[in-house]
Design a protein that fits this description.
The chain is of the alpha/beta class. It has helices at about 45, 100-110, 120-130, 145-155, 165, 195-200, 215-220, 240-250, 260-270, 365-375; strands at about 10-15, 20-25, 30-35, 55-60, 65, 85, 90, 110-115, 130-140, 175, 185-190, 205-210, 225-230, 255-260, 275-290, 295-305, 315, 320-325, 335-340, 345. Helix content is about 20%, strand content about 30%. Strands 10, 11, 12, 13, 14, 15, 16, 17, 18, 19 and 20 form an 11-stranded mixed sheet that branches. A 7-stranded mixed β-barrel has the order 1-2-8-6-4-3-9. Strands 5-7 form a two-stranded parallel sheet.
Length: about 375
């Protein structure tokens, strides 16, 4: 394998497996959890998704970077991935919206990556052994295999990681409704993506984006018509504050809608447990079945934890009857919950997926209908 002018690099897994390649992006050392993403497009949205905080993302698509980087498609103010692993980086971008190359942006933001890796073999390894701690090393950070493995093993695991506060906004801000304001929604920022408020504002919603540490008193002081729980990184078992806040919202019978991390928080508020998956769901081609209708949606997902439960399972919660409303037919993972006696529902996937698919976008309309009915 030729590393050309990029110089050598190594991806080191906690089980001792080492993948050699060429440096890509910034040089140095980075540590995180190695995961794979099956999306064939939307790498810029993936890199800037706060849900990928402290993760080293392996792209299964063989060529990455051919549409370059632009200033319009970011899902947040920065790249959040810890490291980036690709097989064949495009030599030059070919898109009229591109303002620079992906490599240049990785360097600019200090993101350490590696290219020329056999990502197919790597993905199969992660599927069999599970997502695990890893490190990318290049330049002066390259050392012996034993030294690099030791550094990886000294890094913190994802289980037990409390990360939402690290990606949340420091100060509240408001995204105004497009046209006439119909509703006011308090959105708890656990790692919210830019397209989420955008899609709500298109439906006449004024979105108040709040820090993850917001108190129940401050949230209720907004007199919201609805509350939204965003996506985000980390272990949902660490979200004691967000779960308690959700319980307050349920007690007040304020319409609530959660996605991804927000789905896990609502589930925990309703009394369900959570667990770490072997390798998670990360991509834009994952099927989900709605128990009520039998309808299948192709969805975008990014989660390494999930709610405990069985497809269609009904259960009693502290707030009345509830149900596992959606599931993934690939592995029966819980993909949504719905409460029947309080106005609350959530899904594990991303209805706001900017790179597509858009099968789940009508869930925002369902949220609007729930607020209309409750008001």
């Amino acid at each position: 394998m030729s590393t050309g002018t990029r110089g050598p690099a190594a991806l080191v897994l906690e089980d001792g497996r080492v993948f050699r390649g060429a440096a890509y992006g910034a040089r140095g050392r980075t540590l995180g959890e190695a995961v794979f993403c099956t999306g064939m497009t939307g790498y810029q949205e993936t890199l800037t998704d706060p849900s990928y905080h402290r993760q080293i993302v392996v792209q299964t698509a063989p060529q990455i970077g051919n549409t370059g980087w632009n200033d319009e498609d970011d899902e947040s103010a920065r790249i959040w991935v810890s490291g980036y692993v690709v097989r064949d980086p495009a030599r030059t971008p070919s898109n009229w919206r591109a303002t620079r190359t992906l490599d240049e942006e990785l360097v600019r933001q200090g993101v350490v990556g590696i290219s020329e890796v056999d990502t197919r073999t790597l993905t199969r390894h992660l599927r069999e052994q599970g997502a695990m701690r890893a490190g990318v090393f290049s330049g002066d950070a390259l050392g012996s295999d034993e030294q690099m493995v030791a550094e990886v093993l000294a890094s913190p695991p994802m289980k037990g990681a409390d990360l939402a506060g690290e990606v949340s906004t420091d100060q509240p801000y408001v995204v105004s409704a497009q046209g006439e304001r119909r509703f006011r929604v308090a959105a708890l920022d656990l790692g919210i993506k830019s397209n989420t408020p955008r899609l709500m504002t298109q439906r006449g919603i004024e979105v108040h984006v709040l820090p993850s540490s917001t108190s129940a008193e401050d949230l209720l002081a907004l007199s919201p018509d609805g509350v939204f729980l965003s996506n985000g990184p980390g272990d949902p078992a660490t979200t004691a504050h967000a779960t308690a806040l959700t319980k307050t919202v349920l007690e007040q019978r304020i319409p609530l809608f959660g996605i991804c991390f927000g789905n896990q928080i609502l589930g925990r508020a309703l009394g369900l447990g959570t667990y770490k998956m072997r390798y998670g769901h990360r991509g834009i081609n994952i099927p989900v079945i709605d128990v009520a209708t039998g309808r299948v949606a192709i969805t975008a997902q990014n989660h390494g934890f999930a709610l405990e439960g069985e497809p269609g399972q009904r259960f009693d919660s502290p707030y009345g009857a509830a149900q596992i409303s959606h599931y993934c037919p690939n592995d029966d993972t819980v993909e949504g919950v719905r409460a029947f006696d309080v106005p609350a529902f959530s899904v594990q996937y991303h209805p706001e997926a900017a790179a597509g698919p858009h099968d789940a976008a009508p869930l925002f309309d369902e949220f609007v209908e729930l607020m209309e009915k409750t008001r």
